[in-house]
Prior knowledge:
The structure is a homodimer. In chain A, the strands form 2 sheets. A 3-stranded antiparallel beta sheet of chain A has the order 1-3-2. Chain A has a 3-stranded mixed beta sheet with strand order 5-4-6, covered by helices on one side. The radius of gyration of chain A is 17 Å and the shape is globular. The longest helix of chain A has 14 residues. Chain A starts with 11 loop residues before the first helix and ends in a 6-residue tail after the last strand. The N terminus of chain A is likely disordered. Chain A has one domain: Winged helix-like DNA-binding domain superfamily/Winged helix DNA-binding domain (Arc Repressor Mutant, subunit A, Orthogonal Bundle). In chain A, helix 2 crosses helix 3 and helix 3 crosses helix 4. By secondary structure, chain A is an alpha+beta fold. The interface between A and B is large, with 38 and 38 residues. The structure holds a DNA duplex.
Amino acid sequence: MLAESRSSRRPLAQELVSRGVRMTHQRRVLVEIIQGADSHLDAVELWQRARAKDPTINKVTVYRTLAMLKKHGLVDELDLMHLEGEKHYYEAKTTRDHIHLACLKCGRIQEFESSLFERLKGQIERERRFRIQVARLEAGGYCDRCQP
Amino acid sequence: MLAESRSSRRPLAQELVSRGVRMTHQRRVLVEIIQGADSHLDAVELWQRARAKDPTINKVTVYRTLAMLKKHGLVDELDLMHLEGEKHYYEAKTTRDHIHLACLKCGRIQEFESSLFERLKGQIERERRFRIQVARLEAGGYCDRCQP
DNA sequence: GTACTTGCAAAGATTTTGCTTCCAA
DNA sequence: TTGGAAGCAAAATCTTTGCAAGTAC
């Protein structure tokens, strides 16, 4: 599940404080991992990395923190075409939406940005008067390395 | 989770037979429900409708049949932004991919087709040499009826 | 007849809830 | 100090697996 590292506008911890969210030690550890991650993490992977920094962190706290971040629109939740089980993956929200391409053979996840995607979202908002909060485009298929 | 009824190229049962899939009574009941459904069904809803026609049908058979249909690329699996729980929804694959718009307030699901979506997929295939098997675009937001 | 499918029960994976204790502001 | 957050245990939800019995071809 590798992906390029990416950076958000400003530190999540800082963003949360400015929104009046109580900044606990656990939350600080968790958002630092999410922001520094070189891949898309699921809840359990995030929990394991967090325990390396603070062995007392509970899995439930991970779920609750992810829910809180999602509620604030600071992370995106991905399914990555359910390549391995039904868990979800998380990434810090970036300035621009991107598409996830999941290779059904090797499992590699690529990211893709396109102005067509932005135009498509604009078209939906105009033609349906639908105010998009979150858009998720995932494609499953065969990557360039996995073709005959 | 209402959506317009839609029809596929040819009956799923017929399609399966032509692919050499053993056509059991249970499978026939299930694919007929999927094809005639006026909404996106999850596994349990599908099971309940199937039991009305044949009370002996087991939930496990529903999951196994859905997995088989998915493997053959005859149904699409949707998450519908996880509006209610983490279950999946299924629909018979149609000739043209469409986008699902999930209202975060009223829960209504709208479908949207666009040539921009087709162009975007084409761009991905060309620029990344990625052979798309299935593409899923879901957006969460507020529909025209749910805006101030 | 044989290989594939089903039903049943049980387990597995992921996520949520209730409640008490703790801690950030 | 006090309301929100964390930890723990238990439950809930959704899906899969093992195996014996049944059935389509």
